[in-house]
Write a structure and sequence with these properties.
The protein has 9 helices and 8 strands. By secondary structure, it is α/β, with parallel strands linked by helices. α3 packs across α4, α5 runs parallel beside α6 and α8 crosses α9. The longest helix has 18 residues. The structure holds zinc ion.
Amino acid sequence: MLVDSHCHLDFPDFAAERDAIVARARAVGVDTMLTICTRLDEFDEVHAIAQAYDGIWCSVGAHPHEAKDHAALEPEQLLAFASHSKVIGIGETGLDFHYDLSPRDVQERVFRAHIAASRASGLPLIIQAREADREIARILEQERPPPGVLHCFSSGRALAEAALDLGFYISLSGIVTFRNAEELRAIARDVPLDRLLVETDAPYLAPVPYRGKRNEPAFVAATAAAVAMLKDIATEDLAAVTRENFFRLFTKAIPTAQ
Ligand SMILES: [Zn+2]
């Protein structure tokens, strides 16, 4: 059994065939998926998807790209949504200085509102960090939120180590299968097994051998196989340990019966 710790099942890419996509994931053993909220005005739709399927959970948050539309966000707004039974995490949030689609100071303010909501609810943060390693490390070290996850990890070693020191988990996406990702693989080899998660970030970033196609949760199996090779363990063992890690971190999620 496998967990896809980060996907976007509400995106229009999936609208016409969501049932089929969930069925294909289950057919390859992906029984648990965390579908991620990126804008508060889309929460209802994300939440409805989680409500509709066993083993699908959701988050509440505003992606750093969307921070400009959430500039006055207060932790209480997130907490109001976080009380729903299927909401298990806060995010995705963080800093994305690659695209800079929102002003950096607004991204930081909105990130700190998510941190406050994580602290108040005890729900883990789901963090997007892109070309902002030093700033993310500084904010986390200052705020010391409860453990969360650096999703779709593609940052440098220093941020991985800072996050691990704070009890955070590292989630690997299809990027780890890309030919030019040697540096990421070197970092992944050194992340303790009990702090690793795997994800698709579907519809983006399909792993090899699907690279370039639309990604979907079933493909997390390819990422898990690649990470198992890196860790020199069987794919079933990697699947089992990342599943255990997921439920240890996201304590509000209930495992489906196996
Ligand atoms: Zn995402």
